[in-house]
Design a protein that fits this description.
About 60% of the residues lie in helices and about 0% in strands. It has one domain (about 10-75). The chain is built from four helices and no strands. The chain is mostly helical.
Length: about 80
Amino acid sequence: MAWIEITPPERATGLLATVYRQAMQRAGRVFNVLRIQSPRPHTLAASVRLYVEAMHSPRSPLSRAQREMIATAVSRANDCHY
């Protein structure tokens, strides 16, 4: 089994602390899908920017509810609980 050492929010510094803080503001917690990317803070930050653009951008012709429904359907099709 693979093992990735993650950085918990209370030990995060620099860019990782910023990303975690933004996650707390957005969702009220730092989900494991973010924590698992903690060894690569710049990659994590880019991933979060993509997520925020896809799910929260006012430039999308889709409503937030429509985007959430699509994300839910894709996660279900992929047997992913996220």
